[in-house]
Amino acid sequence: MSGMLFAKSILAGLALAAPAGPVGIMCVQRTLTRGRDHGLASGLGAAIGDTFFAFIAALGIAWVSDLLTTYQNDIYRYGGVLIFFMGIYSLFSKPKQDAPPATQTTGDVQDLEAKSRRAALLWADGVSALTLTVTNPASLLAFASVFAMLGVFIDPAGGVVLSLLGSGVVVGGCVWWLGVPMIAGTLRSKMGPQHLVWVNRLAGVILMVFGVISFWSSF
Fold it and tell me: Where are the domains of the chain?
């Protein structure tokens, strides 16, 4: 029984992560233009967001569901604005360039500063992907539909079962969200600087379109 629930949870996490959307576009774009680690950070943030909706859907937490439904249009509106401006940022951003070799005297300082900037950017990538994921209330309905189809429903008192559900959804989401940048990362070495510029531009336009659609649908 536990093994079947875990398997169903993995399928649910994979099924809900797979459809292409703004987060998927952003994950691929960051992998190609910044590096595989930035795509992995974005994928992890998206997986955490999917897990949040999975718990709500499986537990049937009415007040959270009602809250998301009540403010659905506002969430779509603000989410659309966020996606649109992230598209503008992508449109005009430059691909990450390899740092020039540092001299012996300044190498340690430059290396420390580079690591600090990299860590901050990785955190920002994960948080922004998480934010975009949770500003899509449709994910809650999608998880509820998938769980109903798979026959998954959790008793709030069942802590062990709840843990199986959460870990299964995380595994399923990570298979997709961490697999995408791993695959896309193999293409990065084959693309020149000009190609990466156009990846940013294309991703920016697509994100802006998603943002406009999300904003418009709120009305």
Answer: 2-217
